[in-house]
Amino acid sequence: MAWYLDTSAFLKLIIDEDESRALRTWYRANNSIWSSQLLRTEALRARFRLGLTSERIQSVLSTVSLILPNENTFFEAGMMKSTALRSLDALHLATARELGGDLKGIVTYDLRLIEAASLLGIQIISPN
């Protein structure tokens, strides 16, 4: 079974926020962590505003199995009915669904993604 990690959770592994300690503990206890290649782009972009190095981002990224979304994934993301879900979050959700029956749930702190995934019956965790 695989957990899908979105960018809101990934960044908490690197920076210190209220939930970071709980997330890091959870992360160390779990394996088979997956995400989209989109995570790499979002994390590398966030390094500028967070004052992180690309080496630090790449180091933590090396612990995540990354999926390259296919054309259908982009179409599915565009067709999601949630009006509150932003495009990149829709792409994360569609990529997580690519894991099919292997998807155990999504690790996220993004409220829009939590709502959309919950409507699809996907388990959500936000360690705190």
Walk me through this protein's architecture:
- This protein is α/β, with parallel strands linked by helices.
- It is built from seven helices and five strands.
- Strands 3-2-1-4-5 form a five-stranded parallel sheet.
- β4, α7 and β5 form a beta-alpha-beta unit.
- α3 runs antiparallel to α4.
- The radius of gyration is 14 Å and the shape is globular.
How would you sum up this structure in a few lines?
This protein has helices at residues 7-14, 20-29, 37-50, 54-61, 71-79, 87-97, 111-119, and strands at residues 2-5, 33-36, 65-67, 103-107, 124-125.
Considering the chains and any ligands shown, give keywords for the structure:
7 helices; globular; 128 residues; alpha/beta; 5-stranded parallel beta sheet; Rossmann fold
Global geometry: globular
CATH class group: Alpha Beta
Order of helices and strands: EHHEHHEHHEHE
Question: In percent, how much strand structure appears in the residues?
Answer: 5-15%
- Derived from helix and strand composition plus strand pairing, the structural class reads alpha/beta
Q: Treating each run of at least 4 consecutive H or I residues as one helix, how many helices?
A: 7
End-to-end gap: 22 Å
CATH architecture: 3-Layer(aba) Sandwich
Largest sheet: 5 strands, parallel
- Provide the CATH superfamily: 5'-nuclease
Tally of distinct domains: 1
Task: From the alpha carbons, calculate the radius of gyration and give it in angstroms.
Answer: 14 Å
